[in-house]
Write a structure and sequence with these properties.
The chain is of the alpha/beta class. It folds into 2 domains: about 15-210, Cobalamin-binding domain (Rossmann fold), CATH 3.40.50; about 235-475, Aldolase class I (TIM Barrel, Alpha-Beta Barrel). It is built from 17 helices and 17 strands. The strands form 5 sheets. A 5-stranded parallel beta sheet has the order 3-1-6-7-8, sandwiched between helices. Strands 9-12-13-14 form a 4-stranded parallel beta sheet. A 3-stranded antiparallel beta sheet has the order 2-5-4. Helix 10 packs parallel to helix 11 and helix 11 packs across helix 13 (about 365-375). The longest helix has 16 residues, at about 460-475. It is globular, with a radius of gyration of 23 Å.
């Protein structure tokens, strides 16, 4: 049977249920992914969960939460066999959809990933009452068709319910979102100091708890923990020990989304991990930090030193990539002892000239030293993934192939990180200046897999050759 909406008091007698005063409700939605490919790489709508925790703590709203990417909740009648790796990464249910006209020349299928459409319709039909407003998020800019589809369904069910859109798409492509998403209001940037004012404008006053009239969050550390209790299954949780990044790489939007680098106090991070373990019972924890190792002596090392004696049994993962330059012998030992089982390091490229152009925060020599330290700490080199960018405007096939060979010779696992031209970054502006991208083009052009067809020096045949080389290295 499909997931019941949060807060549905089905245990009450029928006559008493309808005598109860109706509570005002909000619906929070993490929509589907529309793409050529997608997998659950420890994906959680962390920003939406932070807003949910604020709303739960400071208002009288009841919350209904729909995560269209929560494949654990797919009803048995869909005969979906979810493939799950030991580290918690898993596959999505997918339904093929019509490919956007822009992608007609690309010889790949296009799909909707996440809960089956009909199951979402059934879920919405079981809500105890219509929401006062809907909060919806979107991570990748080019995933906006999932937002459009979800809003279309919400309009069909609830009519002109106010819909508020936030997230990365809303922040980086706010004009497009305003014109094309179907949402009534767009929130740009972090929403913690905006959401209650927005709800007050839409729903009216009176929902904020009397003792909480003046609410503000001066720092990332002042936020309550994300509302993971809205999930039925918390086998995997994700969190951040910092927000933003002090670097300014040519391809990265971190500074656009969070202009200031904000580390949290180590003791607060530890208390959150303890809370997760005691009340959520997760097995996998992914760190979402963009710059986890910055100020490591006063930050991550303090966190790891506190985690180790707890013997949590948790497995930790670093999907956003670690800076190899910061992995000294001491840190490598601490990572191993604390239970970090999936390590992703960021090299981007072994080409020194290309590194100088994109943002020289790392060197090939840094990676070699980091791998030596990690191996000494007890990691197998073959267990360690190294991100290599492919598709940069100034990059050619030879540079990618040589980078793959460099990582292979070191014994680590090369992993392709596909370049996406993010609005506001230097690489995006360079493509616009060269006439290869329109300044206000469709965000679908940001898709990480379309570079061989639109702007890259790397052709589709080159790209296939690169992937074949990588596949062979995994089979060795």
């Amino acid at each position: 049977m499909a997931e019941r909406p949060c807060g549905f008091e089905s245990h009450l007698p029928h006559h008493l249920f309808f005598l109860m005063p109706e509570k005002k409700r909000l619906l929070l939605v993490n929509p589907w992914i529309y793409d050529f490919t997608a997998c659950d790489f420890w994906l959680k709508p962390l920003g939406l969960l932070y807003l949910a925790s604020i709303i739960k703590k400071y208002t009288t709203f009841e919350l209904d939460f729909l995560d269209c990417l929560d494949s654990r909740q797919i009803a048995p009648n869909y005969n979906f066999k979810r493939r799950v790796r030991p580290d918690g990464r898993s596959s999505f249910y997918k339904e093929e959809v019509t490919k956007p006209d822009l992608f007609r020349p690309i010889p790949r299928k296009f799909s909707r990933y996440g809960l089956p459409w009909s199951q979402v319709e059934e879920w919405l039909n079981r809500l105890p009452s219509p929401p006062e407003a809907v909060l919806i998020t979107c991570t990748m800019t080019y995933w906006y068709p999932g937002v459009q589809a979800a809003i279309e369904l919400l309009r069909k069910k609830f009519g002109r319910v106010p819909i508020i859109l936030g997230g990365i798409y809303a922040s980086l492509c706010s004009d497009h979102a305003q014109r094309h998403s179907g949402a009534d209001l767009i929130i740009k940037g972090p929403g913690e100091n905006q959401i209650l004012k927005v709800l007050e404008e839409i729903v009216g006053t009176g929902f904020i708890k009397e003792r909480e009239k003046h609410i503000s969050f001066p720092s990332f550390d002042s936020l309550p923990s994300p509302a993971y209790e809205l999930y039925k299954d918390n086998e995997v949780v994700c969190f951040m020990t910092s927000r933003g990044c002090p670097f300014n790489c040519s391809y990265c939007a971190s500074r656009l989304l969070c202009p200031k680098f904000e580390p949290r106090a180590p003791e607060k991070v530890i208390s959150e991990i303890v809370y997760f373990q005691q009340y959520l019972n997760p097995r996998q924890v992914a760190f979402y930090d963009d710059a986890l190792l910055i100020n490591k002596e006063s930050h991550l090392k303090k966190i790891l030193e506190a985690i180790i004696p707890l013997n949590t049994g948790l497995k930790f993962h670093t999907p956003n990539g670690l800076h190899p330059k910061e992995i000294d012998r001491d840190l490598a030992q601490l990572l191993k002892r604390a239970g970090f089982s999936s390590l992703f390091l960021s090299l981007e490229t072994a080409d020194s000239n290309l590194l100088a152009q994109t943002g020289p925060k790392v060197s090939p020599e840094d990676l070699e030293k980091a791998l030596n330290n990690l191996e000494e700490a007890g990691y197998l080199r073959s267990e360690i993934s190294v991100y290599l960018l492919v598709g940069l405007p100034q990059q050619n096939k030879t540079q990618v192939m040589e980078s793959i060979e460099f990582v292979q010779k070191l014994g680590a696992r090369p992993r392709l990180a596909y370049f996406s031209p993010v609005p506001g970054t230097r690489d995006f502006e360079a493509l616009v200046s060269a006439g290869k991208l329109p300044p206000d083009g469709d965000p679908l052009l940001h898709n990480k897999l379309v570079f061989p067809y639109f702007w890259s020096q790397i052709t589709p045949d080159d790209f296939q050759e690169i992937k074949n080389k990588l596949i062979k290295s995994y089979l060795v």
